[in-house]
Design brief:
Mean pLDDT: 74
Order of helices and strands: HHHHH
Structural class: mainly alpha
Helix content: over 70%
């Protein structure tokens, strides 16, 4: 017997892929755009120069920082919707939690939330250094 608004079972690989994509994109925005700016600001310009000579592809990524931050922000927002709204309903509807390990779903949800919040913090740091800090420094040194 099915109802008209039946929910599909939880797809664990999809959940992992979304989480890893969010973490990967937030880390990439930090590496390509925020970290080099922060290091130069702190006086570690030589470290940035040696890093860019060892990995010149970072320059190409930093030229596309608006796209990186837009995609990262969208993936992180989608992960918030998934972790806090969709996943709990799917877990209840599908009965995905094992009866012999009732804490299994709680542990998995806790790990997902921790990874999501780490991704969010990395995104905020990257966004601040890449977009907000240059505006502030420009106004201070005018």
């Amino acid at each position: 017997m099915t109802t008209g608004n039946a929910i599909a079972p939880v797809n664990a690989p999809t959940n992992r892929v979304l989480g890893y994509l969010g973490l990967f994109t937030s880390m990439s925005t930090l590496l390509c755009c925020a970290l080099p700016s922060l290091l130069v600001l702190l006086g570690f310009g030589a470290a940035v120069a040696s890093t860019l000579s060892a990995a010149p592809w970072i320059v190409a990524l930093s030229r596309q920082k608006v796209w990186f931050f837009a995609v990262s922000g969208c993936l992180i927002a989608a992960n918030y919707y998934y972790v806090y709204s969709l996943a709990p309903r799917l877990l209840v509807a599908s009965g995905a939690c094992a009866a012999d390990d009732p804490d299994g779903c709680a542990r998995a949800t806790r790990v997902s939330r921790v990874v999501l919040w780490i991704s969010t913090m990395l995104f905020i740091v990257g966004f601040t250094v890449a977009f907000v800090l240059p505006i502030i420094l420009e106004r201070v040194y005018e």
